[in-house]
Amino acid sequence: MKITIKHYDPSKDAAPYDVSYDVPHEDDYMTLLQALVYIHENLAPLSFDYICRGRMCGRCAMMLDGNPVLACVEPISEGSHAVEPLAGLPVVKDLIVDKSQVQAKISETYKRVRVSPLTEDDLQVYNQNDSDDLFGIQYCARCQVCTAACPARKVNSAYIGPSHMLGVAFRHFDPYDQADRIVEAVQGGLWSCIMCGNCTKACNQLEIDHLRVWQKLRDEAMDRGFSDKK
Ligand code: FES
User: Which of 15, 50, 53, 64 could form a disulfide linkage to 60, CB 3.0–4.6 angstroms apart?
Assistant: First the structure.
């Protein structure tokens, strides 16, 4: 198969450039990550990132034929393919992007805010809080694939995007947390989402039900008098 990679080293290249590689396709099944490792070990040095090889660390996120994917679990078929760095983020080198700023913001959101001491009742509620109530958000690897797939985020950089909004929701559904996450969601662009479901389609954590999360946040926001006009 032919794989065309967008190479770029901002420290010395004036612009990104494409290089095509012939990669033998393994018999039944091959992942994009296996193809990249083959290129790096046999054909040319290539910068890309991965750790877990199992959709947990989120570090291997990139674009395959225009779609955001996790390379470690993305099957690649015979034929021609284009591989580029994950859309919407600055390139560090080749297929490695700088997620540090966006991850720092999301990590801030994930910090619990608690102003009063925990009571026995709080602990009861927490212990009864079934993981189903979290709509699978606890499995989010923060890989940014959903945000790269989001058409609303592409046209509106003020919208924090699905990955960050999942963090807001995660803390909203956390009975320990006492911050006003509905206000945070509204300010982050809760109504910027067009409910297309691209985030869910792109997400490799099949447990996460993004659209139900957005709808629940919207319902609660509307109960409090917020609307898409505000
Ligand atoms: S290597 Fe960890 S998610 Fe792909």
Answer: 50
Mutate to test the pocket of ligand 1, among 50, 74, 86, 146 (most ligand atoms within 8 A of CB): 50
pTM of the model: 0.90
Instruction: Quick: pLDDT tens for 12-29.
Output: 999 999 999 999 997 788
Q: DSSP alpha helices (H): ranges in the chain?
A: 32-42, 100-110, 120-128, 145-149, 151-155, 161-172, 181-187, 198-202, 210-223
pLDDT in tens, 99-130: 999 999 999 999 989 888 878 877 776 655 55
- Of 1.10.760.10, 1.10.287.70, 1.10.10.350, 1.10.1060.10, the CATH number of 100-223 is 1.10.1060.10
